[in-house]
Write a structure and sequence with these properties.
By secondary structure, the protein is mainly beta. The protein has helices spanning about 45-80, 230, and strands at about 1-5, 15, 20-25, 85-90, 100-105, 110-115, 120-125, 130-135, 145-155, 155-165, 165-170, 175-180, 190-195, 200-205, 210-215, 220, 250-255, 260-265, 270-275, 280-285, 290-295, 305, 310-315, 325, 335-340, 345-350, 355-360, 365-370, 380-385, 390-395, 400.
């Protein structure tokens, strides 16, 4: 048993070790030319000819009226072809599930897991073409409907966190999962986890707690000395707009490859950053008028920033800064919810009502992929496993797979 404690908290945070192992497991009409002597045509033949003529005119009109629908079908087909770089994968899950995260085993790039609300865990062993539901008995023994927020792998070791508080660990690429119970005194809900090395991981809550383990979760230490609320309510942070008497939580949090974090306040009126070695989160005023929707890291080390209503901004230079420039995007007024970089030059942005945007110059200009307009869902997350494998996650179980 190990004790974790924030300096502002009156009670210690206890993380208990669990030793429970989990094994999951129109017919064509042929018109006949009726011949007869020129001087005589039987009355019956005239009647038959008149009837056939009327049918011919009626059927011709029917064909003419159907042409617009045929053209519409052709346009729809062309629209689907326009989405050639992405393919929708249909999943065996209930309607209404929101997909939240995806990860693959580094040593088995066809083997991955997909997480979501309503206790959703899916597994693939063919690179994401097909997914099957995965059950973890210890997560079903209680009357909770878990929301699995984050998953990460390093080698064969993997971690999953969710809400209500649940932490799962595997050392065999997800063949079995071990549950590590957490105290209900844990400050906030776990929203993110990152496997950082052998038996090592970083875990983040929506109140700004960062915990680090290096012994497979037996012990955890706090990387920051106080919660974000405590930091923001101190005198030194009085210059941050909206920070006074702050009691909210993070709306989003994203980690850079080198361990830096950027988080957006629940109301979107400011953002915070943290770097390894810092004792506290550093708050920043937003440089734009509209409230922040999400923030993250570009492939070159700079920041991207999304605002409500569909605005996209890029930081000037790399690293942590408060200087941003707006980039014109065709979001149709719908909010952009996430950005994922495939390379330093190519990235994709996704958002409300099937908004899907692409840049091939590092974010300086974006073009809208109109084919995604036909997807009746909000797209919440863009994640590239590598330059050839990527996914877009949305609500109602919508999953897009990158084809390249």
């Amino acid at each position: 048993m190990a004790t974790l404690q924030f300096t502002d908290c009156s009670k210690p945070v206890i993380l208990l070790r669990s030793f429970t192992s989990i094994f999951s497991n129109s017919r064509h009409r042929h018109w006949r030319n009726v011949s007869a002597p020129a001087r005589f045509i039987p009355k019956a033949s005239l009647q038959q000819f008149s009837l056939n003529r009327r049918r011919f005119i009626a059927e011709t009109a029917t064909i003419s009226l159907s042409l617009p629908s045929l053209l519409g079908f052709e346009q729809l087909a062309r629209s689907e072809e326009a989405l050639s770089e992405w393919e929708r994968v249909y999943l065996p899950i209930d309607p209404g599930v929101v997909l939240l995260d995806v990860a693959f085993v580094p040593d088995e790039l066809n083997h991955g897991f997909l997480l979501g609300t309503r206790q959703t865990i899916l597994e693939t062993k063919d690179g994401g073409n097909n997914w099957i539901p995965r059950s973890i008995p210890s997560a079903e023994d209680e009357d909770f409907n878990y929301r699995f927020n984050s998953i990460s792998f390093k080698g064969k070791e993997g971690w999953i966190v969710g809400k209500p508080a649940i932490l799962l660990y595997t050392s065999d690429a997800g063949e079995s999962w071990e549950r590590i119970p957490l105290s209900d005194q844990l400050p906030g809900d776990m929203v993110y986890i990152k496997a950082t090395g052998e038996k090592s991981a970083e875990m983040v809550t929506d109140e700004g707690a960062i915990y680090i383990t290096s012994n497979r979760g037996y012990n955890w230490r706090a990387a920051v000395q106080e919660t974000v609320s405590a930091t923001l309510n101190r005198t030194v942070s009085s210059g941050i707009s909206g920070a006074s008497y702050y009691t909210g939580t993070f709306n989003t949090v994203n980690r850079s490859p080198d361990g830096r974090y950027v988080a957006v306040s629940s109301r979107g009126n400011f953002y915070l950053t943290w770097e390894p070695g810092q004792a506290f989160w550093q708050p920043h005023n937003r440089a734009v008028a509209r409230r922040i929707q999400n923030m993250g890291w570009r492939a070159d080390g700079g920041l991207w920033l999304l605002v409500r209503g569909g605005g996209l901004y890029l930081s000037k230079g790399t690293g942590i800064t408060e200087e941003f420039e707006e980039v014109p995007v065709q979001s149709r007024g719908f909010g952009i919810l996430d950005v994922g970089y495939r390379s330093e030059e190519e990235a994709w942005a996704a958002g409300g009502s099937g908004v899907l945007l692409r840049t091939t110059n590092g974010g300086k200009s974006w073009t809208r992929d109109k084919a995604a307009d036909n997807i009746a869902a909000n797209l919440y997350s863009v994640k590239f496993i590598n330059d050839k494998k990527g996914f877009v996650l949305g609500n109602d179980g919508v999953l897009l797979r990158y084809l390249g």
